[in-house]
Design a protein that fits this description.
- The chain crosses the membrane at residues 50-71, 83-105, 135-157, 163-186, 198-218, 263-282.
- Keywords: Antibiotic resistance, Cell membrane, Membrane, Transmembrane, Transmembrane helix, Transport.
- Residues 51-287 form the ABC transmembrane type-2 domain.
- InterPro entries: ABC2_TM (IPR013525), ABC2_TM_bact-type (IPR047817), ABC_2_transport (IPR000412), Nod_factor_ABC_transporter (IPR051784).
- The chain is mainly alpha-helical and 289 residues long.
- It has one domain (69-286).
- It contains 14 helices and no strands.
- It is elongated and about 60 Å long.
């Protein structure tokens, strides 16, 4: 069955499930239920077109190899490779928000969103399903990065409970930034514009951070921006959770964000969702008017 037919089947399932008496299911339960249906539909499309995951797999491998072996010798050799993986994780999961922007824009361009809007289903659920299904890409990217890290000498130095908690925080961050991609897609409405805007903001956010260097080494106001950048917090929390130390000679970042990286990263995730989830839903309601 082609992805197009799968889409029609998913729409039919949403319509069937959603036609229930009003008041029986709360708004939250309805959003979760419809979001699950949309997520299954999106995952079916990915399963039938696995080429969509090529970027999510190839990109982190290239970044690991380039930064570890091209720049790693200058920045600290094998010690830098230990430090690097946390930054690659934070950067890649941030970059994966562009998948949400592109594929939601494609659904909008092909009229799939219009069909969803015509059905008696939760407006939140449609966008929620997109962000849920894109977690699959983030899971694949995360596993690929960890495998690459192990191949180049990266090791975990903490207990399994800390590792599980760190992975959970990383996926929470991936889910949060996917809402930014949803806002971009629903605002741009064009696949080309969504792709451009979905990548444009990622480079300054990821590279003016502590993902690959110490924020303390950056000049002037860039240092303060990097210290409070959520990407820095996620990268630092990943390093702490996996027990990876910075190379000798790295200037240690100071301040509350560095000393409380896991807490600050989690708070940033909550803040991103609190801001961009309502914006995405509001923009979804305006689509087609």
């Amino acid at each position: 069955m082609s992805p197009a037919v799968s889409t029609v089947s998913a729409v039919a399932r949403v319509s069937t499930v959603s036609r229930r008496p009003s008041g029986v299911i709360s708004g939250v339960a309805s959003a979760v239920r419809d979001g699950g249906v949309i997520a299954r539909r999106n995952l079916t499309v990915v399963r039938r077109t696995p080429g969509a995951l090529v970027t999510g797999v190839a990109q982190p491998i290239l970044f690991v190899l380039i930064l570890a072996f091209v720049f790693g010798g200058t920045l600290g050799g094998s010690e830098y490779r230990e430090f690097l993986i946390g930054g690659i994780l934070a950067q890649t999961l941030t970059f994966n928000s562009s998948f949400t922007a592109v594929y939601l824009a494609k659904d909008l361009h092909h009229g799939i969103i219009d069909r969803f809007r015509a059905l008696p289903m939760s407006r939140v659920g449609v966008v929620l399903g997109r962000t849920w299904s894109d977690l699959a890409t983030s899971v694949v990217s995360l596993l690929v990065i960890l495998a690459c890290g192990l191949a180049i000498g990266w090791r975990v130095g903490t207990d399994p409970l800390q590792v599980v908690g760190t992975v959970g925080l990383l996926l929470f961050f991936a889910f949060a930034v996917s809402w930014i991609g949803a806002v971009i897609a629903l605002t741009a409405r064009s696949v080309e514009v969504a792709q451009s805007l979905g990548l444009l903001w990622l480079f300054p956010v990821c590279f003016v951070s502590g993902a690959f260097v110490s924020p303390a080494s950056l000049p002037g106001p860039l240092q303060g921006i990097a210290e409070w950048n959520p990407v820095t917090a996620v990268a630092t929390a990943a390093r702490q959770g996996f027990g990876n130390e910075a190379p000798a000679g790295f200037q240690a970042a100071a301040g509350w964000p560095a000393e409380n990286a896991p807490l600050y990263a989690a708070l940033c995730c909550v803040a991103i969702i609190a801001v961009f989830a309502p914006l995405a839903v509001a923009q979804y309601r305006r689509v087609g008017r």
